[in-house]
Amino acid sequence: MSDTEQQPAPTLPRQRTCPFSPPPELEQLRGTDPISRMRFADDSGGWLLTRHADVRAALADPRVSSHPGKAPQPWRNLAPEMRAEHYLPGFLIFMDPPDHTRYRRSLTKWFTMRAIRKLEPRIEQIVSEALDAMEAAGGPTDLVQSFALPIPLLVICELMGIRYEEREEFMDMVLRLQALDATPEELGALGARMNEFMMSLAAAKRKNPGDDLLSHLAHDPDADPALTDLEIAGIGVLMLIAGHETSANMLGIGTYTLLQNPDQWALLREDIGLIDRAVEELLRHQTIVQQGLPRGVTQDMEIAGHRMRAGEALLASLPAANRDPEVFPDPDRLDITREHNPHVAFGHGIHLCLGMELARVEMRQAWRGLVTRFPTLRMAAEPEEIRWRDDQIVYGVYNLPVTWDGAQ
């Protein structure tokens, strides 16, 4: 469809027919109209991109902005004040250079491969302790509560210098912030509460710094200008959501996906050396940022013959791109032996996920430990008993009852 046609734009597809796959309309559009006119939940019109090459091109183009005042909010309507420049300072995923560059520079040293390698033994210990607790408690158990949630939560709490005991204070807020049915007023109030929580932590780190991320931000000698408590709070909220919710939900839905594909579980059980490929394949197959990445066009541009004008919005569908048959043969099949896997689960371009290597280490250690310790792991509930997070920005499962041979 060209940009000159005047047909009414359809609404963004959101209804899944299979919980393990994106809405089928996305596949249809990718085949017939991969760059299509679309109407989003905030009633803005724009472009939906469903092909791998087009998604990468858009996310890497400097004429495409992440600023919330220029991008659509495809999954829900936001109050005007939540699109203003002052909303959540430090939330670098909503920023363009030079602000984005400044904030990211302050964070990069904490997420280099060298820094993550130093963390790996502690992550391995956290996984082992979670599995010890599972084994001691016996089955059946809810794998979300006993495994998927606590491992990345403890990791990010230690990285940021947040006491694990404080988790209840922010977990409910994090969950509700991502609810697709949250009202603009509720989102504003929740954002203010999260900022208040993080600002109190930032103030505490200024007085009594430790060897953690928030302390580093509060005392970064290279920051120019120095970060304010409000900026540190925004970065902290982002790190907490991005560093916990994504990994936790990947561990939950990824384990369920493996158990629903017993041949793949068996392959991994018999050859744990496949763990790296398994992680990448699960990231591709279960792309949990289920609506994609919203962007805004700042200058007239063209992608694959489609003219996009300044001021127009676009949505890069990561789930559709990661099922593109031009890039991934037999894309709907889970194949943990897949060698060529250039997925975009972590995004692309300047906003490529800063914590992707940390997430990979968490998943690698967690699934290696789970498969090795509980090779006979299996579901302890019927599929209809699983509650899906289709009401959240980050997709996954709310519960995952499992058991194993010898469980008490």
Notes on the structure:
By secondary structure, this protein is of the alpha+beta class. Helix content is 45%, strand content 8%. A hairpin with a 5-residue loop joins strand 1 (35-39) and strand 2. It has 14 helices and ten strands. The longest helix has 31 residues, at 229-259. The termini are far apart. It is globular. The strands form three sheets. Strands 1-2-8-5-3 form a five-stranded mixed beta sheet. The protein has a three-stranded antiparallel beta sheet with strand order 4-10-9. The model is unreliable at 1-5 and 77-86 (pLDDT under 50).
Which helices and strands appear, and what pairs or packs with what?
Blueprint lengths: L23 H9 L2 E5 L5 E5 L2 H9 L3 E2 L33 H10 L4 H25 L3 E2 H6 L1 H11 L6 H11 L6 H24 L5 H6 L10 H31 L2 H9 L4 H11 L7 E5 L3 E3 L2 E3 L4 E4 L1 H4 L34 H18 L4 E2 L21 E3 L5
Parallel strand pairs: 2-8
Antiparallel strand pairs: 1-2, 3-5, 4-10, 5-8, 6-7, 9-10
Q: What is the share of helical residues?
A: 40-55%
Largest sheet: spatial strand order: 1-2-8-5-3
Class by SSE composition: alpha+beta
Roughly how many Å apart are the termini?
59 Å
Kindly estimate the percentage of residues that lie in beta strands according to DSSP: 5-15%
Q: Give the overall average pLDDT.
A: 88
Query: What is the number of strand segments?
Result: 10
Sum up the overall morphology in one term.
globular
CA-based gyration radius: 21 Å
**Stretches with pLDDT under 50, minimum 5 residues:** 1-5, 77-86
Keywords for this entry:
408 residues, alpha+beta, five-stranded mixed beta sheet, three-stranded antiparallel beta sheet, 45% helix, disordered N terminus
